[in-house]
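User: I'm putting together a teaching handout on how sequence relates to shape, and I'd like one worked example. Could you take DNA polymerase V from Taxus chinensis, show the sequence you're using, and then write out its predicted structure as tokens right after it?

Assistant: Happy to. First the sequence, then the structure tokens directly below it.
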Amino acid sequence: MDKKSHTDKVLPVERDGASVLGVKSMDVDDESLPETESDSDDVLRSWIVDCIYQLSKNANLEPTEKFPLQKEILKFLAVQGLFTASLGIEVTSFELQEKLKWPKKPASVQIRRLCIEQMHHLLADAERLLISEKRTEINESMQHEVSPLESSDLGAYAICFLGTLQNIPSVSLFWALSKDDEHTFNKILDAETQLFRAAHKGGYNFSRMQAMRFLLIQLLLQIPLRHGEICETASELLICCKEVFGSVIELDVEIYNDENVMPDFMDVLIDALLSLLPQSPAPVRLAVEQVFRCFCDSITDSGLMHMLQVVKKDLKPPRRKTIVLGDSDEEDPIEIEESESGDEFKESEDEEHTDDNLEEQESNVQTEPTLQEKNLQETGDSEDMDSEFDDEAMFRLDTYLAQIVKEKNNAVGSDTAQSQLVHFKLRVLSLLEFYLQRNSNKPIVLTIFSCLLQAFEKNSSPTEGNEQLADRIRVILERKICKAKEYPKGPGVNFLLLKCLLDKALKLVSRPKGKRMESLAQTCSFWLLKVIHGNLNKVKLEDISQIFLASLEDFFTNKKCCLKGGFLREVFRRHHWLGTAFFRMLAENFLKTKSDFLRYEALSLLDALIRPWIGKSAQNSYQNLQFLEVHLSSLSDLIRHLLQKKAHKKSFRMQALQFCKGVLEAIQLLGLEKPFAQLLQFHKLVTCESYIGDLFQTKLDLDS
């Protein structure tokens, strides 16, 4: 019988966790076990510990029925993993009203570690349950004070249970802790207890308190396993607790007295959360993510810049120089890597990146030997924010990266360090993704967009990039930024950054960097134009037209340009205000270019411009009338050329006919028939009858 079958068949019989599992007697009576070697004992005991947790995980029970089961498992794991008894193998706790038992043969360090790890997972499952169920009894219990031993909160019960055992004279921690670790251990116990009581009194954000509590509990379990590594992070989290919940809890923690020195508590919190992401187990990372979700609406721009520093950090310098496209005097937020290769990447399938599959996703990371290091050149405010992390705020990140480099140098032929960095980046990207989901309308999104687009371009390199990182970044750019319902608005939108980003996006579209890059660059271009149109006045829109003019000229003059006519037509269709600035230029290109393909590409772009003035949705506005009056001469020259020099291909002739019909319909709608007929000199065109029949006669109301 496997674990799942055992759970499904045994648990429905009796739903009292203690009696079903026999937790109190498991692994405490060695008389029934044959004398075996230590390794064999460890194998058996590890199997027991694993089975106990799996029973809780796979139990198909209601939350109220599952809690007693989880509580019994928690007590067993805590006793076997954290504590030892100095007087025999059995201790009675009057406060808990039960007997605690230890095996006659003490558990090994390996088994104790396994017990603590399973406690991590058990508490993470309990937190998920509280988040997903959002049970009404939790909200109702906030109206009155509840004892941790009587509540249905497994985290609160765990802290109360550990504190009770720690106060029993004959029971002590198995793990030898330093003074700092012991001090941190006790501080976390006190902080969690106060947060639990404050949360159930009401008046504060319950979800914030809940998330912070479970993170502190997870860190408390890490203290025995990571000696000296948790103290600093835990101290920072306790400082944040005092800053946020200081009016309802009293914590004895040291904070800066000088307001000029004290950083924003959110910067301290982000620094602490990031320090936990690289090497912590999955349950700790889940708790970190939940805290970030609850606090991300208050995150500062400098905190976001700290996260972006992680995304763009690499282990090795670039093999090749990078070229910056655009004006050399400006600082560009995106660097486009010089590449002689025009190889196309294989189009990868879109993947949904959710919290549930993140751990599985990271386990399949594919890493390349190197990544290029390119520092993001920020403009304006971004540069100022970045500079805040040159010293103390970046110390922990730099320390971790230095540790990775050291491991990489020591592990010859190994990509462990690179894999760790990729994992770290994926976890930070998950936090950024959630922030963007909630704050897609903030101006700082442009800076995030800039960094992510640069990181995508770098990781798309077939030789020096990482395909999984590239796919992850592409999904965030497309779904959380470009396809979001809202976009950056307000006075904080950086116009210079917008111009630079659009220029780089258009250059990425026109460069042969593969289908994946081309598709994303087009999507980004559409989004940037939407942001521009929604924020800027006519004067600044003219500056944007100049950026697009360079791309149009490249399209008609550069044979290596990879811009597609369909992309340009879609731009004009979505942003008609942009296309009208190029009407005369497109008409001139049609008349002077020698290539039939480019000539009729220009004609199709012109047709896209006049479409808003044709059909039922057309508007007879003064702006349209004024525009056609200005360009009436160019239109007449264009149509005269179409009538006199018919195209050889039937498809081109049909395109010309449709364009002529569209122009005449727009002219008729705006009442410009007579001035247009005079410019066209219709009576001199002897070929018009055979070419388009009586179209001109009808539309312009002329005699044959």
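A couple of points you could highlight for students: The beta strands are 83-85, 90-93, 98-101, 171-173, 322-323, 336-337. The two ends are 95 Å apart (CA to CA).
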